[in-house]
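User: Thanks for the earlier help. One more: DEAD-box ATP-dependent RNA helicase RhpA. Can you show the sequence and predicted structure together?

Assistant: Of course, both are below.
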Amino acid sequence: MTKFSDLGLAESVLRALTTEGYETPTPIQAQAIPPLLAGHDLLGIAQTGTGKTCAFAAPLITRLLQYPEHPRPKQTRILVLAPTRELAAQIGESFKAYGRFAGLRIATVFGGVGFGPQVAALTRGLDVLVATPGRLLDHMQQGNLRLEGTSAVVLDEADHMLDLGFLVPIRKIFSKLPKRRQTLFFSATMPSEIATLAGEMLHQPSKVSVTPVAKTADLVSQRVILCEAKRKREILVDLLQNPDFSRSIVFTRTKRGADRVASALIDAGLTAEAIHGNKSQGQRTRALDGFKAGRVAVLVATDIAARGIDVDAVSHVVNFELPEVPEAYVHRIGRTARAGADGAAISLCDHEERDLLRAIEKLTKQTIPSTDMRLSPHTPDDAPVVKKPAPRSGRPPNRAAPTGQRPAPRRDGEKARPPRAASEGRPRDGRQARR
């Protein structure tokens, strides 16, 4: 059996891993560390919760120690890019843990907080900088950071980083990096179109894939509850009131939806906090700290948190709404069953979400067991959604007459309304009704 001591890591890194309680490397760690120590580019694919951060942090710290160099002002020797503030903070803490005996300068930069401390850290120069793309570009444009001295760059959650809105910032950042550098892509999923983009940025990379693309974590038991949309909150409250749901994350599709679900849970007597992009960094930090400390039993989140929450002993993940992008399902349920623990994922699926469920099952190549809790279960699951017909063109919908105008005359065959009694109050314009 492979041990960390067999992989060629620096003594100080091995000591830090022992302090963290690490004994045996996971498959992604065992396969990724040797080529990274040799200086190769790497494309690593592993399901979430399998130790990707250690797989790149430990060898990169070792290489920094092998080639000691004092950080230059306004430069960083290693750059790690992450899609969310929470994930950036998590990676930064991991680097500090694995490098605790190495005497390195490590900082984290993301939006939602003041520039002052970040500028001070960048001005001194860094060994490792973990950043979100937007705030990193802000600092670069203000002259607080240059990348010509960066020897290695990491894209964590690369599929998300290169998707949609992240592609342009990533290209701008890469254009400022030296051509001779070590580039690492790590992700739980790697769709073919994203892999093509990764191919443009990697040079003859080593490829490590320890699990099929989009495979869900093995230790997560999955279940779907079929129900009407209007009954989701009732069912969610019933689930979370079970003592077995000791620490749970509930996912919604929208920020407003997260706030509403959190309020409903609080009204039901549960301790809950919402976390999403409209929250300030202070609010997000307090919610996450409360969840980690056990003061908050339920964290209601949008997909911004699916790749940035690394909390031990999350017993359940509940998809209050199924994600529109099936890959997000893999990341959501990966918040439980971490570090070898068991976990459970429950998805509430209404009739209009059946296509989303099919897309998830197709991507993950599995059929998720379901429980039918619909009030009218005789309705076929694949029945088309029936939309209400538009009003007939021959008769426009009723509208109130504009103030000060007489109502439109009645058509033939229409019944006249009974006269309004004086006791019914005043007309809409506030004038006293005439007798």
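User: Great, one quick takeaway?

Assistant: The mean pLDDT is 84.
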